[in-house]
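Preliminary data (for renewal application), 6-O-phosphono-beta-D-glucopyranose complex.
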Amino acid sequence: MTTSQDALKVQVHHSSDDRPPSPCGFVIFGAAGDLTHRKLLPALFDLFRAQRLPKNFFILGVSRDSWTDERFRKEAKASIKEFGNTAVSKDFLSRLYYRSSDGTTSGFKELAIALHALEKRHKTGGNVLFYLAVPPSAFGDIASQLHQQGLIYPAGHTEAWSRVVFEKPFGRDLESANALNAELHRFLREENIYRIDHYLGKETVQNILMFRFANTILEPLWNRNYIDHIQIMAYETLGVEHRAGYYEKAGALRDMFQNHMFQLLTLCAMEPPAHFTADQYLDEKAQVLLSLRPVAQNQLDNFVVRGQYAKGTIGRKKVPGYRQEPEVDRKSQTETFVAMKLFIDNWRWHGVPFYLRSGKRLISQGTEILVQFKQIPHSIFASFRHQQFASNILCFRIQPDEGISFRFEAKQPGPEINLASINFNFDYKTTFHTKLMGAYERLLLDCMHGDRTLFIREDIVDLSWKFITPILKHWEKSKRPVALYPAGSWGPKEAMALIHGDGRKWRSYVPNYNIPTDGYGKEL
Ligand code: BG6
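Predicted structure:
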């Protein structure tokens, strides 16, 4: 069943800060790269079109390629058309500039001169946002050069602001993340560092917090007394695509868990802060990670399963296995799938398992969070119905078909006592009749406003690596090979055993959000 969306009166409460940010320049390092063209430029153009950017604004692209302004504008126009699917205005393109840089001090000197000229021309008053869409190995050098050129303003400099955004991956284990943070702090204060996790910019991810803490009825149930377990899942049908060079060294645990999956976990499990201010909110998220129960090294295989896709069929298309992809080692042990079971040792969650799974080349595409409530304690219908009732399930559909559904039991019409599982459904598209703001749009805007709430603070990076690093170390030493699964399946059978062993099942509302299946298409 779906509630009649027309009958739903949507009262929108606007937040107080809808103003465009102050004038600024936007400098992108890695301007010829994939991320810039797939995500950043289309997002900036959408913001421009929606008049959310300041009137005084320019974009300066920087990379090693010897492009001109014209070439950058031409490439940007093509990418915005391809990934934003829209006609690009001349006004926007005329604000795009390009400088090639070889990374040397003299290159950065020239860059600083070009930047200052643009600041004058566009009257941006020295406010500048640097976006580092480059490999992490370049983060330290760029930060140091920006500092040397006086482009990172010291504490107490109030005339203008400078901020630096860092793309993931932020380190590859605890040690390297610590070293990177220490290096960046030589040139930057924490409040100028914006570590981005694009999941936090998704409307549906932000809504987890709103839904939990702007409604009275959930909070009394949101704990070990009523919740049996929580499943957090991100499935992809895509394979490694053209990113094997990066992915071979990363793998699914670093690529999806240390950041996106753990961020979803903290939002589901955190306590309400007294106020929704960046630091109070981030403190509560950190508390969740601090409370993760460490798993003994010899127990890790019972809590974490890694898999890798073998050849198979997605839709009707035959696809190669990971090891057959270009640039992938034929004996690669890199995981493209991870499933894990976690416990949060605090008063609220003691004993409640959190099951997480994510992988590439799976049967469906989607991200969802399922909160499964406990069984009723006693059935008064036992003489009519011997089977157990289905448990209530609250499902956050992060993507696609963004929304929330709630499954409950109801009487089927007729003289007999028959019950059916019903789904109440809230759907963004039909309720709000508006296109959801893209994750990058939201986060870029927040950086310009100087709002760090949806970014990753240093201690949060540190705490998630603290949990992940022992698993990585264990796999490095482990003789147990990565478990293979056919492309187009739900992952390796070992991942099924992880949850079946506890008498539970993976469930999924993807692809049909009215019908939860057991992950193999069998209706539940
Ligand atoms: C990225 C990962 O951070 O997130 C990719 O590097 C992954 O491997 C992507 O495909 C998933 O993001 P989304 O928004 O498509 O769920």
